[in-house]
Amino acid sequence: MVGTHFSRKNLDFTLFDVLEIELLAQFDYFNAHDSETFSMVLDAATDIAEKIMKPAFVDSDRNQPELLDGQVKVHQGVHDYYKAFSEIGLLSAPFSFDYGGQQLPKVVAAAAEFICGGAHNSFVMYSDLTKGAANLILTFGSDEQKEQFARKMLSGEWTGTMCLTETQAGSSLSDVATTATPQPDGTYRIKGQKIFISAGDHDLTDNIIHLVLARIDGAPKGTKGISLFIVPKNRLNTEGGHLVSNDVVSIGIYHKMGQKATPAMHLEFGGQNDCVGYLLGEANRGLPQMFLMMNGARLGVGMGGIHIASAAYYASLQYATERPQGRRLNEKNALGEPTTIVHHPDVRRMLLQQKAIVEGGLCLILMCYKFLDIERAEQDPSVKQYYNDLLELLTPVAKTFGAEMGMVATNQGLQVLGGYGYTEDFILEQLARDVRIMSLYEGTTGIQAQAVLGRQIPRNGGKAIDLWLTEVRKDIEKAQNDDVLQTYATLLETNIAQWHKTTQHLLSLAAKGDAEIFLADATLYLELFGILNVAWIWLKQGIAAQKTLSIARLSEDALQFYQSKVHTMRYYYHYELPKAQSLTQRLTDDTNLTLFDNDFEPLC
Ligand SMILES: Cc1cc2nc3c(=O)[nH]c(=O)nc-3n(C[C@H](O)[C@H](O)[C@H](O)COP(=O)(O)OP(=O)(O)OC[C@H]3O[C@@H](n4cnc5c(N)ncnc54)[C@H](O)[C@@H]3O)c2cc1C
Q1: Whose CA is nearest to atom 32 of ligand 1?
Q2: Among the three residues 230, 262, 284, which one is the final residue of a domain in this structure?
Q3: How far does the centroid of ligand 1 lie from the alpha carbon of residue 166, in Å?
Q4: Which residues are catalytic?
Q5: Separation of CA 42 and ligand 1 centre (Å)
Q6: Which of 131, 154, 177 is a domain's end point?
Q7: 547-587 confidence digits (pLDDT tens)
Q8: Residues of the chain whose pLDDT is less than 50?
Q9: Nearest residue CA, atom 38 of ligand 1?
């Protein structure tokens, strides 16, 4: 991959002008930092992205991991990345000083991830999963577990995974069947198979710490009987403290469409009845505990869609400025010099859509990470709860917008290249394959939609909606005072009023007690809510851009940047926001055509 894959100017604008993340340093927990240390982290990430990740992007796709004699071997680039990423401290950076971290705000770590992920979206899977698993151990583990596992994971010595999925338990985790049998020494014997486990085996480190959902013998059926276990690939033997095999066997490797540098494994635990697991946290509380990791991972997946879309945008923008084809629509001379395709309005529309999705999605996701930081560092329980409630509502929205619209944007990038986009000569083909997973793992879009409409919207009498409206209205009010933004503030207000009516209509269906009717179009509702959220985020960006445009004497470059922000905001409001109308129309139309009916099957 050559050329830029992200805009540092835009990232700085998002972090400092829009989200004002330097204010996080006022919290005791983050007081070792300031905007200078934040920038240093982003520089370090850029260095790894450019020197180690990008050069391996294509080769590691063409030379996939192999399962040979029960052991997976991964591309040399993964080794180089993991070594550099952990040695430079990026792996442990957001963790506490007690575990070798730097107490760096998660929003900065996420921005570093955006930089690295755009350079190689598959490599960051290893570090993301390890961070998520270590975070769970640090949150719910005993002191001994923290020392024995989390410390080694954060130093880069060992990696981590999440093992939820089984053949019959994908979206429906209540059907997890892996068992855990209590032993006299307080440990458990684990037995079962897990599928699709990302980074589930590799030759990167000499141990892998799996976090496994399993059912303790005799536990209740359903979600209330699921517990979480630490299950190392190799365990310490009782005598010398050497690592010995823990009966975790790689029985298959999936051949995937994209993200090929990360193996997705079929693992067997306890085939020889010799797999030891250590209960993490409370028995039968495994699923809510695991959700802590999954919520972080969901934001990471949304970011995955956006950093891939960013790489696609800059690759297609470069192509569009170099590729001559055809003449301007107003050109009368059919034999004149061809123009480059960036001059065709239809190509510009595709590029503007990509830019609006990338910069809007990035800001939404980084805002969620900032809320996570405030929730972490704030002392006042009511403020903590406020951000927690907002995050419960916004996490599935950010995940889904990043995933679904990241696919749309990446696909547009491919379209900009015409036929060449479909070939291996350009990276769009690989990016389009890589991004496809985002709407599937960490809960499919359909499952995120049910979480939003079925749980978060009605929760506590609609409390989360009220908090969300409070936040959005703060920006609408600010924008009403600006001549350029006024129109857009009013447009957002009008669309939100319609959304609110639609929500009340759907909740009235819920009150009738038929969940299938209520949730039949939950995915469309989530799409609508995602469009509105990013319209809000674009208004935020418009406010920050207008502020600079009105007070500062700017260089030509800076002027172009801030004006382009306002232009892209206008694009979003004139091209993307109107899509809310058709979704609202569908969601308030009571004709149900998708419900299963015993007497008539239209799917034939
Ligand atoms: C490359 C890759 C990496 C992965 N990595 C991991 C990992 O590291 N760890 C891990 O544990 N898992 C991992 N997974 C598994 C992933 O999380 C699951 O594939 C995903 O949760 C969907 O489950 P499923 O494949 O069984 O699909 P299913 O659950 O069978 O879903 C099929 C379709 O039906 C829909 N559907 C299912 N149930 C409902 C419902 N109740 N209401 C409405 N629609 C529904 C879904 O939205 C989907 O469109 C990975 C998967 C892949 C492909």
Answers
A1: 171
A2: 284
A3: 10
A4: 442
A5: 33
A6: 154
A7: 999 988 999 999 999 999 999 999 999 999 999 999 999 99
A8: none
A9: 171
